[in-house]
Specification:
The complex is a heterodimer of chains A (259) and B (404). Chain A contains 4 helices and 13 strands. With 259 residues, chain A is an alpha+beta fold. A 13-stranded antiparallel beta sheet of chain A has the order 6-5-4-3-2-1-13-12-11-10-9-8-7. Chain B has 404 residues and is an all-beta fold. Helices cover 3% and strands 53% of the residues of chain B. Chain B has a single domain, classed as Porin, CATH 2.40.160. Chain B contains 1 helix and 21 strands. Classes of the chains: A alpha+beta (259), B mainly beta (404).
Chain lengths: 259, 404
């Protein structure tokens, strides 16, 4: 009898999977994306930020970034500005947390002062760009609630289309719609909807490359603001993994010694 | 002389940099216009000043060791005391598993409040640079920082005292009588060779950050008393007493509120009055994306208190002008590509109604230039206020900086 019951249960399993609600499916996609992007330990990369105004005039920013995975919590990351030159040596330290507000500090080299950034500033623009602080923070599963909408092709690639609603306080968005590549579980496109639920920005990620035979990183990201017609391009280069970073590289003191 | 010995030792000890020399810095022109005719002879109504601050540094050992050298020079049109040279930084730093070791001349900042910096005590104020006292002279030090999960402990040995800089005869703003540094006296018989000590514990727990600090040594604040110098002129004689200062600084971020408090208890500064307490506390409330824009508006208010009130030693000119004062201000950050920011503030004396207005604005021009505007205005200054001598020194200043 017992054996038969077990068999019956097994037979029901795939049915169960099919009976997944759109919310469960959305969450499952996010969990899988997170799982595939876990274990990289630490990374560093160079970032060029190109800010374009509505007339097409552009300005460049050069930033060095390093980050480290933290077990059971969000990542630690540091961004160091090399240009514009008046902010050279300015450093931004962020401890992302899955469920509570991120801790963020900014070091101002001219004043030799470390300034704590209020978490309600998350929706504010990062360095005059079209990226908000929250767009650049690490993507923890717990930061959103999810809903799978449909599967569709995006630029010739099979993608899941999911809706994610920020659960954290002070988000500037009511929702995001993300096109997730079914092969690599990375976003191809994300639409951001503002507090009035109208389309504010679209982010597209391009030229994904695989590192350490496992982790996918985009080489170029384009953020377009539909309400201001301004845009920001991020160009990522020099990805390096296994740098051996420790907590010492991401403490408040380390802000003061980056140059 | 001791700072320079340390400097030489650092240069001699550092391995010859193999790669990654970095050289950067800035050059600036400042124009200052006073609105009223000068109160004292030898002063001028406008002034041009040039400054340069190059910076060299080298990092090696995977960034775990660093040397940095930042000299500073200012050449002033009128004030021979404002024309000066300083080594802001000449330091070696090593990172270890327990924390950091630092040796050399550096600048350290402690504190959280906007209107004044009571807790910040390690470096001497380079007062000729700016009335706000935020510019500091490089301080020679040996500093160990123990960085642990339960907080950071910073221990400082501070050899080599730096005297405060004061405006000269042609300088403006300045006190009625010029400070004569030839007459400087110290409580310690070792004078500038006295070794000061400081310790600080800093930690943050969630939204709260706090620091507890103690300083033991020669005060950075001189007591100034009028006297007659060898030339028969009335001048101010600086006296640097030995003090003990214990302080607390706390900051909390609670949604849109930034709550701030600095409090000190200082003994030794005022021998007649004895130990006294002073504090600054208040908030900054930020409205993110004001008027549906990307700009942030911060509303700032702080209360400034000094226990001595009007009782400070009448012989001293450096008693606090902020004994029972209220600061109100606003900070507007445009969050634009040029990082435009404006800070406007007012400090009102609640006893006598003296008012000190302050405006600071800055904006980047292109990629390597920065334009700053600053204005300071004094009104209703009561004769008992230490700012009385500079009541006619309202000015606006334009600063253009080029970064290389």
């Amino acid at each position: 009898m017992k054996k038969q019951l077990l068999l019956a249960c097994l037979a029901l399993l795939p049915l169960n999977a099919l009976a997944q609600t759109p919310e469960e499916k959305g969450l499952a996609i996010a969990v899988e994306a997170d799982k595939r992007n876990t274990g990289w330990k630490d990374q560093s990369a160079d970032l060029t930020m190109i800010l374009k105004n509505r007339h097409g005039q552009s300005t460049e920013r050069a930033i060095r970034t390093k980050s480290m995975e933290v077990e059971n919590d969000g990542d630690k990351s540091m961004s160091i500005f090399d240009s514009p030159r008046d902010v050279q040596g300015t450093a931004f330290l962020s401890f992302t947390h899955a469920t509570t507000a991120d801790d963020q500090w900014l070091y101002l080299p001219a004043l030799k002062r470390v300034k704590r950034i209020a978490s309600n500033n998350k929706s504010g623009p990062f360095m005059g760009s079209e990226f908000a602080y929250e767009d650049l923070s690490s993507q923890e599963v717990e930061k959103f609630t999810y809903k799978w909408l449909r599967d569709e092709q995006y630029e010739g690639k099979d993608a899941f289309v999911i809706e994610r609603i920020p659960t954290y306080e002070y988000s500037g968005y009511t929702k995001q719609i993300a096109w997730i590549d079914k092969d690599i579980y990375q976003p191809l496109k994300i639409e951001f909807y503002d507090r009035k639920d109208s389309l504010l920005k679209t982010l597209t990620s391009h030229e994904y490359k695989q590192y350490l035979d496992k982790y996918w990183r985009a080489s170029r990201m384009e953020m377009v603001n539909h309400q201001t017609n301004k845009s920001t391009t991020l160009r990522w280069s020099n990805y390096k993994f296994s740098n051996g970073f420790t907590d010492r590289d991401f403490d408040r003191n380390s802000l003061k010694r980056v140059r | 002389m001791r700072p320079y010995l340390i400097a030489i030792a650092i240069v001699a000890l550092s391995p010859l940099p193999a790669q990654s020399h970095e050289f950067r810095g800035n050059v600036a022109v400042e124009y200052r216009q006073f609105f009223e005719d000068a109160s004292y002879d030898d002063q001028f109504n406008n002034n041009v000043s040039l400054s340069a601050q190059p910076e060299y540094f080298h990092q090696w050992d995977n960034g775990d060791q660093l040397i940095a050298f930042t000299p500073y020079v200012r050449i002033d049109q009128h004030d021979e005391e404002r024309t000066h040279f300083d080594i802001r930084e000449l330091t070696w730093l090593g990172v270890y598993h327990f924390g950091e070791l630092r040796l050399g001349i550096r600048k350290v900042f402690w504190g959280v409040t906007e209107s004044q910096h009571l807790v910040d005590i390690v470096n001497q104020t380079d007062l000729v640079e700016n009335l706000d006292g935020e510019d500091k002279l490089g301080q020679p030090m040996i500093n160990a920082a123990l960085i642990q999960d339960w907080g950071t402990v910073d221990l400082f040995v501070l050899p080599g005292f730096r005297e405060r800089t004061f405006a000269g005869k042609h300088g403006r703003p300045r006190n009625q009588f010029v400070v004569d540094k030839d007459l400087t006296e110290y409580e310690s018989s070792e004078e500038q060779q006295h070794i000061d000590f400081a310790a600080r514990y800093f930690h943050y727990i969630g939204a709260w950050e706090f620091g507890i600090s103690h300083f033991n040594g020669t005060s950075r604040d001189p007591n100034l008393s009028p006297t007659i110098n060898a030339q028969g002129e009335i001048v101010l004689k600086p006296f640097y007493p030995l003090i003990n200062q214990t302080s607390l600084d706390v900051q909390a971020i609670i949604s849109n509120w930034l709550l701030k408090l600095e409090a000190i208890s200082r003994g030794g500064q005022d021998k007649d009055y004895g130990r006294y307490a002073a504090a600054t506390g208040g908030f900054e409330y930020t409205i993110v994306g004001i008027f549906q824009s990307i700009a942030d508006l911060g509303i700032i208010s702080e209360y400034l208190y000094d226990e001595r009130g009007g009782d400070a030693d009448p012989g001293t000119f450096m008693a606090s002008p902020f004994q029972n004062d209220l600061m109100l201000g606003a900070r507007l950050a445009f969050n634009d590509v040029q990082s435009t920011e404006v800070l406007a503030g007012l400090i009102v004396d609640l006893d006598h109604g003296d008012r000190f207005y302050n405006l600071e604005a800055e904006r980047r021009l292109g990629d390597a230039w920065k334009l700053s505007l600053e204005a300071r205005i004094f009104t209703h200054i009561h004769p008992a206020n230490p700012l009385y001598d500079i009541r006619k020194d309202d000015y606006a200043q334009l600063n253009v900086e080029w970064f290389f």
